[in-house]
Design a protein that fits this description.
eight-stranded antiparallel barrel; 21 helices; 13 strands; Hypothetical Protein Pfu-838710-001; globular; CHAD domain
Length: 671
């Protein structure tokens, strides 16, 4: 059968002799496979987490937070034993943070699934595994395998309780049958034992032996009681980026309480049948786009590639120019000046250029209280995100890490949203001036980020393909890289401009001066956070809920508009979350799950539009195989759009249910 992501397929062997694994890793050829490149070493620390009552394990999943030198990734893998050495596991990955509150992680399908299964229950560390990995890529025709030699330490309260070594061969491209020659070769090797359990299970067993207390945490998934094993379960289709079918009833994600904040309610809204999927052209085996490490890199603080901007206010329509840009996704050729027309950064300029205004360590939170005047609450929020903008400026100039541009763009969005949420508390001229300056910076940042996202998505699609197909997609990648380089030069020019320096100085003065720009208010006019936040948040929620009657038939532009209003609801909650009740993180998490889903659909839509425009403009200059390859990429993005459109019901129900509204009411009642 063909490999269908996100199913991970690999061979696992326990080693009695590390030297034998090192010899296999160093071999230039293993059967029909030829090694490419060296075998670099990577140090990982894997922290396995779950809720206190084991919600993830009951649902058949294990969550791992993996720390490397520069990143933190969350991986969700389905539990279950392999068949001999062969393991097949569903896997989702995404970026994470040190927080064990998943709602505070950057958006990703992995986070959405954790929120779906765990609700607002905090995660706890179960155990830690530390490993040194050496890996090498093996190629045989179109088949690609990563051979890894892992030296594993199982830790319990920083004490090493067991050490072992494993050899793994993970299928990156090709079919399971391509693994058979390698499997036969490895199983003839003395000292290699086919291993049917995961490192996690081995670690749990090792700790149980050391402590003398068996841990029942993973028992249902490993014994087959209550949770289907991965080899038994009919993982025939994905119902959304947030949930994998089937999920047993025991995995209801919200803990029981006197009046639970949420409960999975049997509402029939948007339950998508197989027939409806067929009508939309989505196969029942439709799969998630590749999350992987590339996707983790591209999703930081907001859904990568969310090309729209927030509505101007809860009652005000989205500005036409923002909607047009969101629909187009990319700057036009006219907007992108020719490279010769752009003043490139001085080669002698240090990338660590000192920003126009001094950088303070970013605050941990804005510090909003219910009794803050609205004007001062807005000032706190703007200061909070202004500090984050400044902290990323040097990185955005250097171009070394795309996430610096992304984080800086997110900061400008949050500031623009804050001006619109709190704008009535300021003099109109102050609000208008700051929004105009922010719009210019945001436009330059957005042009770079949009193209970064397109390139990363294309590269994730290309990576497992045969070399001929990868080369045929190069004209499209080269055109997007050219546009990205032009947009980056324009961004650098903007950051070096006198206008940007003046903007920084002006905004610094505003956030550091209490009362600056504030409009005069009558003492009896609602002017505190507790007086105004409730109606603002309810109005934003009503704009989201208004989509309920038409959602089943909504087209892509309509769903894009829903995403913008969902973003507005999210910001309205986030800006005052410290003043609201304890339900707020989960409320935000539910809105973010809907945003994640619609953001992924928007990514696919922009990729379709941009690749189709390239085909139309360059058709006469492309070779036949190049046109065909780009056309296949375009169709893959169209299929992904259709799948996401058909499965929006699951995250929608998390926001549209009566349970959400009751929890929202309780959160606002604390004001």
């Amino acid at each position: 059968m063909s490999l269908e992501r996100p199913i991970e397929v690999e061979l696992k062997y326990r080693l009695s002799d590390l030297a034998r694994g090192e010899r296999l890793l160093a071999a230039d050829a293993l059967g029909p496979f030829r090694a490419t490149g060296a075998a670099p070493s990577l140090q990982f620390e894997d922290q396995y987490v779950d809720t206190r009552d084991g919600a993830l394990a009951r649902a058949g999943f294990a969550a791992r937070l993996r720390t490397t030198r520069s990143t933190l990734i969350v991986s969700l893998k389905s539990l279950g034993k392999g068949t001999g050495a062969l393991h097949r596991r569903a896997e989702l990955e995404g970026p994470a943070s040190r927080s064990l509150v998943p709602a505070e992680w950057p958006p990703s399908p992995a986070r959405s699934l954790v929120l779906e299964l765990c609700g607002d229950a905090p995660l706890e560390e179960r155990l830690t595994i530390r490993q040194l990995r050496r890996r090498r890529r093996l190629v045989s025709g179109v088949a690609i395998v990563e051979l890894s030699l892992d030296e594993v330490d199982v830790l319990l309260r920083a004490e090493v309780v067991e050490r072992f070594a494993e050899l793994e061969a993970e299928l990156v491209a090709g079919t399971e049958s391509d693994l058979e020659p390698l499997r036969e070769l490895l199983e003839r090797e003395p000292g290699l034992v086919p291993w049917s359990t995961s490192k996690l299970v081995a670690a749990v067993e090792a700790i149980a032996r050391r402590t003398g207390r068996p841990d029942p945490w993973l028992a249902p998934a490993e014994t087959g009681t209550g949770v289907p094993r991965v080899e038994d379960a009919e993982y025939t289709r994905w119902s959304s980026p947030a949930t994998l079918e089937p999920i047993p009833a025991a995995a209801e994600p919200f803990p029981a309480a006197d009046e639970p904040a949420f409960r999975v309610e049997p509402e029939p809204i948007l339950a998508v049948s197989d027939a409806e999927l067929d009508a939309l052209g989505v196969g029942h085996d439709a799969e998630l786009g590749e999350p992987g490490e590339a996707a983790a890199d591209r999703q930081a603080d907001d859904v990568a590639g969310q090309h729209g901007v927030e509505p101007a206010s809860a009652d005000e329509p989205v500005p036409d120019e923002d909607l047009e840009r969101a629909a187009d996704g990319l700057a036009s050729d006219d907007e992108l000046a020719a490279p010769a027309a752009i003043t490139a950064p001085d080669a002698g300029t240090s990338p660590e250029l000192v920003p126009a205004t001094p950088i303070e360590p970013p605050m941990r939170s804005p510090g909003i209280t219910p009794d803050d005047p609205v004007a001062e609450a807005g000032r706190k929020v703007i200061r909070f995100h202004f500090q984050r903008l400044l902290a990323r400026e040097a990185g955005a100039r250097s171009g070394k890490d795309p996430e610096d541009v992304h984080a800086m763009r997110v900061a400008t969005r949050r500031m623009r949203a804050a001006w619109r949420v709190y704008g009535e508390a300021y003099r109109p001229g102050e609000r208008r001036r700051q929004l105009e300056q922010l719009r210019t910076v945001a436009t330059r940042l957005g042009a770079v980020r949009d193209l970064d996202v397109l390139l990363m998505g294309l590269e994730a699609y290309r990576e497992p393909l045969p070399s001929v197909e990868r080369e045929a997609l190069e004209p499209l990648a080269a055109d997007w890289r050219r546009r990205r380089d032009i947009a980056r030069a324009q961004l650098t020019r903007e950051l070096d401009s006198d206008d940007y320096r003046t903007f920084g100085e002006s905004l610094r003065s505003f956030v550091d001066t209490p009362g600056a720009g504030a409009a005069r208010v009558d003492p009896t006019t609602p002017h505190r956070v507790r007086d105004t936040a409730g109606s603002r948040i309810w109005a934003a929620y009503e704009r989201v809920r208004a989509f309920e009657p038409i959602l089943r038939w909504a087209d892509v532009p309509t769903l894009h508009e829903l995403r913008l209003h969902g973003k507005w609801l999210r910001y309205s909650l986030e800006f005052v979350r410290e003043a609201l009740g304890p339900e707020t993180p989960l409320l935000i998490g539910r809105v973010v799950a809907l945003q994640d889903h619609l953001g992924l659909m928007n990514d696919a839509d922009v990729a379709v539009t941009a690749s189709r425009a390239f085909l139309v403009q360059r058709a006469a200059r492309l070779a036949e195989e190049e046109s065909a390859a780009i056309g296949r990429y375009l169709m893959s993005r169209e299929r992904e759009m259709s799948r996401l459109r058909a499965t929006v019901g699951t995250p929608w129900r998390g926001v549209a249910s009566p349970a959400f509204r009751r929890a929202l009411g309780r959160a606002l009642a604390t004001l």
